[in-house]
Design brief:
The complex is a heterodimer of chains A (507) and B (684). Chain A has 20 helices and 2 strands. Chain A is mainly α. In chain A, helix 11 runs antiparallel to helix 14, helix 13 packs antiparallel against helix 14 and helix 16 packs parallel to helix 19. The longest helix of chain A is centred in the middle third of the chain and has 32 residues. The radius of gyration of chain A is 22 Å and the shape is globular. In chain B, helix 1 packs antiparallel against helix 2. Classes of the chains: A mainly alpha (507), B mainly alpha (684).
Chain lengths: 507, 684
């Protein structure tokens, strides 16, 4: 392992070592108030490395392949440091930074293990950042576990019955899904003789010529089982049952992080695996993704209507948004016009997915930061307890309203553009019915989002528990809110970044 | 010529007012909230001046063309921020800024003392800016964005008094129902995207509105990118968006409820702007509709039917604002029908005159409410003695609405009726078929009903004896044991302050003269050429690709149609006079004698019940949502029971829940889900 190898994973290393450092600092110091800021400082270090890598990438596609000595580094084949991974690393870091700041108030209610709280967040983020880079099945598996296990511990962090239940459920369902995924990976290895995506792709190309689904039954079972693991992480139907329970029970900042960063990282690895490893059989898996997309959108939106707990509601809402994202992934492939009728890559589909993830991150974080602040005041997550919020905390109410309006997809917010691009991509790839279903779903979703707005503005105020919100939490709320509107008004920058990232993936 | 910057300023001035009021005045200077009204009025006055300059420039030197700026690039399809200044836009700019300015001046008085004064003007500014953006945009995506913003800001305005449950419910209803129409609009946009490659091959941008016009024209006119069934569905999609915003049947039911907003809001958004946005949208895409004759037939029939259907409900309403609301829906139906019949300039002409007299009538309702404390006409009466000026103005507005010569509404309505009579303006298309005749029947019957409900409203409000206003209503409600819903004010019978009647007088002048002077029928008047607005709008169409395809000419004044419609209108007024003018205070509404009809009308044909109870609650909510819930619980739990796991409800501690199987159930469902997917691939 050379210094260059270390440099390649320096952003991840910085985050992981910050995690260890925060736990150690927690042991040493009596006053814990500075811990989140220490974690934040570590993120800045990681960010610096990311920026250096971005600059380095100016002359290369993948830094891992760009070793001068001729001999490939130890990471060759298992990790890629390209513009695609950097896009997601920036996204995860941004989400992590904001969640860290928004946790400052929140962790005061946690008596013990405050250092561990931030440590676990950082470890999980390390897993996510690795996930975005991983190009080899074992690495993917390890990174996925590294992402999931700290989140399971964090879900149980409040030690209330609901929180513990959430943690246990997340752990067990996560274990089942990763076991299923591991079976899938084993089958793929058995069929192709490799765990590296580029080598798998070679075998799959020749298999695709056979007239079998997925080019062979082993591949069929392998890919589908592997998708179970990713489906679990991005909370797609039919692997979504855990979502509302976890969203209700886990600490709110953890849920915010889970809904944004974890979903983004899982989408990253899903895209990389499917599009670089299994593209020759894309028409087969794209049809599956299409069905999952339709089911997730529809089920998520319908089930959200009956919810009385705002966090459960957001649980179902995130399932629906996973559906919209899957629409974009399915739109990344279309039947080519050539005689063979093989799959053709449509970059707009993936561009739209990456853009959607950034747009959704901004909107959902804004919503959750407002929810965190409200639940600190009222200690409740019931929608009815949001009654009269506009009079108790007008700015919070306005921020949450904007976020809800964004989640519906109303201009000039980020998700309006995101939905526009994603549905356009679907239409371009011949998935007109899916785009129409998506549009109808967006309208249906307005019903339950508007209901919350109505409660906040209409119903009489509940008794309040006066407790202020720290400037740091305000800062996090403001940053995500400004990003939410900013991406909506001037989407060009993020859209361009998504294009560049996707361009690096498919050459 | 007019500079591009000055046109952008029309949009940016109210937007700046919104930002300043929302971010500076309301948080920090709320003690000086009155500043916000003044700020917005100054911004709008400037915007109006610039709009007039723009109109003047378009009249003198034709349509200016400006380069767009790229905003977004979606897979090769470029979305631009670009201005589209044609006669339609120029006229709309003046109407929107003009009416909005009048409404803001009126609001200074009407909203005085409201604790949320600054918030009110902030919303008004946002609304006006969105409407102006909608009118100015040359790109369908940007237009759609402003379209949605109009929806959002109207949600805020309708629900302005959010402490009233009815207002909050009405706001939500407006938002959701208009969004149902927007589904069609969005699908139309997606269709354009789908045709992106064909547009590109023809050197056109699928989102640039003039390019869409071009694409819809036949090959001879250099188009033929769009055509056939696809074109029909595209136009119907756009029309469905317009139906939502303009309250066309069957998406009309939000509009009367939206009267829960403050009265000046109704004057602005339900008379002149938001509801006119639907008309504007169809007019904006008129060259496209013209190529889709089937769609035009639908537009004509829906418009005609709405004109009649809404007027029937206006007959029995007792709330003065609801009478106006149904009247608005009905008048929008006239405009829509005119568009469907190919009488594009007549529709816009009617939009302009209607904006002036309907805004005026809403302000009358506001004045009346200030004096009596209620909107319920059963508690009004005899107000003409106390409020002579308001009475004079309601007569002007009412006669204009009914369409009596020489008031403004007469000229524009006559134009529409003549178009329906004379087989449309092109001697072909849907107007020549049965659809055109049927529409004419709808519209003429509508004239009778319009005259009747307008004068019923005037008689119940201003004639007879005063019936006690809010005090009496409060007493009656208490006697019936019904709760006081809190919207009743105080009674002080007097004219309103100058702020309120000043804009009304201006609108009253417009309601008298704007009809004839905008469109002199025989000779040039005061330098305004004969048939000015019609010629001007046709001039605009001639610069579109449509000119090469459709023969456009200005119809001459149709004496016979004018005579027939006047007779019908007078008959309606006469009937109302017989029934309502000399009615004693205690007697019942004569229409109640026809019980089943009255019940049907006053319950609005049970449309609300149908939508809310049958469709939303029973079918959708109870049906689909419960089905999902059922799958979530019963099937998942059923699987658990079936495989013999321990029964539920063992104890309250947290372990019990997964001992009872929920986690196992999730695991089972996850595994079954994967198996199902595999099975699916093996079978198909």
């Amino acid at each position: 392992m050379t210094l260059y190898d270390l440099y390649l994973i320096s952003p991840q290393l910085a985050v992981a070592s910050t995690g260890i450092l925060v736990i150690l600092l927690d042991l040493v110091f009596q006053r814990k108030g500075f811990l989140p800021y220490a974690a934040f400082a570590g993120l800045l270090v990681s960010l610096t490395f990311l920026v250096i890598q971005s600059v380095d990438l100016a002359g290369a596609v993948n830094l891992v392949d760009a070793v001068d000595s001729g001999a490939a580094g130890v990471l060759a084949g298992s990790l890629a440091v390209d513009r695609f991974s950097l896009f997601f690393n920036y996204l995860v870091l941004a989400a992590l930074g904001l969640v860290t700041l928004a946790s400052v108030d929140y962790v005061r209610r946690i008596e013990r293990f405050r250092g561990e709280y931030f440590g676990l967040l950082l470890f999980s983020a390390t897993g996510m950042m690795l996930l975005a880079s991983a190009t080899e099945l074992i690495t993917i598996y390890i990174s996925l576990e590294l992402t999931t296990l700290p989140l399971a511990a964090l879900s149980a962090f409040l030690m209330t019955s609901k929180s513990s239940e959430a943690g246990m459920k997340f752990l067990i369902i996560g274990a089942i899904s990763s076991a299923v995924m591991l079976y899938g990976m084993a089958l793929i290895y058995g069929f192709t003789g490799s765990t590296q995506l580029d080598e798998i792709a070679v075998v799959v190309t020749s298999a695709a010529a056979l007239d079998l689904p997925f080019g062979g039954y082993a591949l069929l079972v392998g890919v589908v089982l592997m998708l179970v693991g990713f489906g679990f992480k991005i909370s797609s139907v039919p692997f979504q049952m855990w979502v509302p329970d976890i969203y209700e029970g886990a600490p709110a900042p953890v849920v915010a992080f889970l809904s944004v960063a974890s979903k983004a990282a899982a989408v990253a690895v899903l895209i990389r695996v499917l599009f670089t490893g299994f593209f020759p059989i894309a028409l087969d898996w794209a049809s599956l993704i299409t069905v999952l997309a339709a089911a997730s959108m529809t089920l998520g939106n319908l089930a959200a209507m009956g919810q009385s707990n705002i966090r459960r509601l957001f649980g179902y809402s995130t399932i629906a948004h996973a559906g919209y994202i899957l629409v974009g992934i399915a739109a990344g492939v279309r039947t080519s016009g050539s005689v063979t009728g093989g799959p053709e890559f449509v970059s707009l589909g993936l561009n739209s997915v990456l853009f959607y993830l950034a747009a959704y991150a901004a909107a959902n974080l804004t919503a959750f930061f407002a929810i965190i602040a409200v639940s600190q005041r009222t200690g409740s997550d019931l929608i009815e307890d949001y009654g009269g919020l506009v009079r108790r905390a007008p700015f919070l109410a306005v921020a949450l309203t904007l976020a809800l309006v964004a989640l519906i997809g109303v201009p000039p917010t980020s998700i309006f553009i995101a939905k526009l691009v994603i549905f356009s991509a679907a239409v371009k790839s011949g998935l007109v019915w899916l785009a129409i279903l998506g549009v109808i779903n967006s309208v249906v979703s307005a019903y339950y989002y508007v209901r919350i707005v109505r409660v906040m503005f209409l119903e009489p105020p509940q008794e309040q528990e006066a407790s202020g919100i720290s400037p740091v939490a305000w800062f996090a709320l403001t940053v995500s809110g400004v990003a939410m509107i900013g991406i909506g008004i001037a989407p060009g920058f993020v859209l361009r970044a998504a294009e560049i990232a996707v361009g690096a993936l498919m050459l | 010529m007019v500079s591009e910057a000055s046109i952008w300023a029309i949009l940016l001035l109210p937007l700046a007012a919104f930002v300043v009021i929302g971010l500076v005045v309301r948080p920090f200077l709320n003690r000086y909230a009155w500043v916000s009204g003044i700020l917005l009025i100054i911004a709008l006055a400037a915007a109006l001046a610039l709009s007039v300059l723009t109109l003047d420039a378009v009249i003198r030197s034709g349509e200016p063309h400006f380069e767009g700026r790229q905003w977004l690039d979606v897979g090769g399809a470029v979305i631009e921020l670009a201005l589209l200044i044609d006669p339609l836009t120029a006229i709309m700019l003046v109407v929107v800024t003009g009416v909005s300015l009048m409404v803001q001046i009126y609001s200074l008085g009407y909203m005085r003392g409201d604790p949320s004064y600054a918030r009110y003007f902030a919303y008004m500014a946002l609304f006006t800016a969105s409407m102006l953006g909608l009118v100015l945009s040359a790109n369908i995506i940007v237009l759609y964005a402003f379209w949605e913003l109009v929806g959002v800001s109207s949600y805020l305005l309708i629900g302005f008094w959010h402490e009233r449950p009815a207002a909050a419910a009405a706001a939500k209803k407006a938002f959701l129902i208009t969004r149902i129409g927007d589904v069609g609009f969005l699908i139309a946009i997606l269709y354009l995207f789908l045709q992106g490659d064909r547009f590109a091959a023809a050197g056109l941008n699928p989102f640039h509105i003039p390019d869409i016009w071009q694409a819809a024209q036949p090959l001879a006119a250099g188009g033929a990118v769009l055509g056939g069934v696809g074109l029909t569905w595209l136009t119907l999609g756009i029309f469905s968006g317009a139906m939502g915003k303009s309250g066309q049947f069957p998406l009309h039911s939000w509009l009367p409820d939206a009267m829960e907003g403050p009265t000046p809001v109704s004057a602005l958004i339900h008379a002149a702007t938001m509801v006119a946005a639907g008309i504007f949208l169809v007019a904006r895409f008129y060259p496209v509709f013209q190529a889709a004759q089937h769609a035009l037939t639908v537009v004509a029939l829906v418009g005609g039917f709405t004109a009649l259907f809404a007027a029937t409900m206006g007959l029995v309403m007792n709330d003065i604002k609801r009478v106006m609301a149904y009247s608005t829906v009905s008048q929008l139906g006239y405009m829509m029908a005119a568009l469907g019949l190919g009488a594009f300039p007549a529709a816009i002409f009617h939009l302009v005159t209607h904006a002036s007299f309907k805004a005026l009538l809403f302000m009358v309702a506001g004045n009346v409410n200030h004096a009596t404390g209620t909107f319920n006409m059963r508690y009004m009466g005899g107000l003409w003695r106390r409020m002579p000026l308001t009475y004079a103005l309601v007569l002007i507005g009412g006669l204009s609405l009914v369409g009596i010569i020489p008031f403004a509404g007469f000229w524009s309505k006559d134009e529409i009726l003549s178009a329906a009579w004379s087989d449309g303006w092109h001697g072909g298309g849907p107007a020549a078929l049965w659809a055109g005749k049927l529409t004419l029947v709808f519209l003429l019957t509508g004239v009778l009903l319009t005259a009747f409900y307008t004068f019923r409203m005037i008689y119940m409000t201003f004639h007879g004896e005063f019936r006690g206003g809010a005090e009496q209503e409060r007493a009656d409600l208490a006697a019936e044991g019904q709760p006081n819903t809190g919207h009743l004010g105080e009674v002080h019978l007097a004219e309103s302050p100058i702020f309120m009647w000043f804009p009304m007088v201006l609108l009253g002048v417009a309601a008298v003269f704007s009809g004839y002077l905008l469109n002199p029928q025989w000779v040039e008047e005061f330098g305004i050429p004969k048939h000015w607005i019609t010629e001007f709008l046709i001039e605009g169409l001639k610069s579109t690709p449509l000119a090469g395809v459709v023969h456009l000419e200005v119809p001459a004044f149709n004496r016979w149609m004018a005579a027939v419609s006047t007779v019908i209108a007078l008959a309606g007024i006469g009937l109302a006079s017989v029934l309502y003018l000399r009615r004693s205070a205690a007697s019942k509404d004569p229409l109640e004698a026809i019980k089943p009809v009255h019940a049907l009308l006053s319950r609005k044909y049970f449309v609300d019940e149908l939508y809310e109870d049958v469709i939303v609650r029973r079918s959708f909510y109870n049906g689909m949502v419960r089905a999902v819930d059922w799958v979530d619980r019963v099937v998942v739990d059923g699987v658990v029971d079936a495989i013999g796991l321990v029964s539920r409800n063992l104890g309250p501690n947290f372990l019990s829940r997964f001992q009872t199987g929920e986690v196992q159930a999730y695991g089972v469902a996850l595994t079954l889900g994967s198996l199902l997917i595999l099975l699916g691939f093996l079978v198909f």
